[in-house]
Specification:
Blueprint: H1 2-46, H2 56-59, H3 62-87, H4 91-121, H5 130-160, H6 168-200
Helix pairs in contact: 1-5, 1-6, 3-4, 3-6, 4-5, 5-6
Length: 201
């Protein structure tokens, strides 16, 4: 009887030991929501403060923004495929889909950096007006989060290489990154709609 009660207790403890990892990450995402909410509020206040400089209607190009958006949205789909493979313990497929997600995210960041460089070259840097200061702060904060996500992806790929099984701890890491990556997609949709499209109307 003593042996029978020990086994389920161990599994039960392990389950509760791992659960706070994902829960804690949810708490972190809530704090990130506050940060982005504050940046969106600042942009709402300053969006018409051009100080004689260019407006969003003059600066933004829908074609490039459409490609950025497509890359990030597709990257969420490929990460989802990676999670499906992880649940099946198909490590090679997990690594492959993480790699595809990384390339798509890298393409997004590259386009965003190119956009910033072009705007600064045209004299529309963050010091040009309050509107541009709020724009650069909000969009670059999102871009920095995506960059951190890319570093996270590379780290997980390295950790997965040479393994034959995905332990619970690794699954928690993949789940947390999944939450983070999808969260960035939601934020970008808000940025694309409220910052870019609304400024171009």
């Amino acid at each position: 009887m003593a042996h029978d009660t020990t086994v389920p207790t161990s599994g039960h403890d392990e389950h509760h030991h791992e659960s706070p990892v994902v829960f804690g990450f949810w708490v972190y995402l809530m704090t990130d929501c506050i940060i982005f909410g504050s940046l969106f509020a600042a942009f709402a206040v300053l969006r018409n403060q051009f100080n004689g400089g260019p407006s969003g209607h003059e600066l933004f190009e829908l074609s490039g923004l459409g490609l950025e958006t497509a890359l990030l949205l597709v990257s969420s789909i490929t990460y989802g495929f990676g999670m499906i493979a992880a649940h099946k313990n198909e490590i090679s497929k997990v690594i492959m889909w993480l790699g595809v997600t990384f390339l798509l995210g890298l393409g997004f960041v590259g386009l965003e950096v190119n956009e910033f460089a072009h705007m600064i070259h045209e004299g529309a840097g963050p010091d040009r007006s309050a509107f541009l200061s709020a724009f650069f702060t909000l969009v670059s904060t999102h871009g920095l989060h995506v960059t951190c996500g890319l570093i996270w992806i590379v780290t997980l790929i390295v950790q997965l290489m040479g393994t034959t099984e995905i332990p619970e701890r690794m699954m928690n890491k993949l789940t947390c990154l999944s939450l983070f990556w999808h969260f960035l997609d939601i934020v970008w949709i808000c940025v694309f709609t409220y910052v870019y499209l609304a400024s171009m109307i």
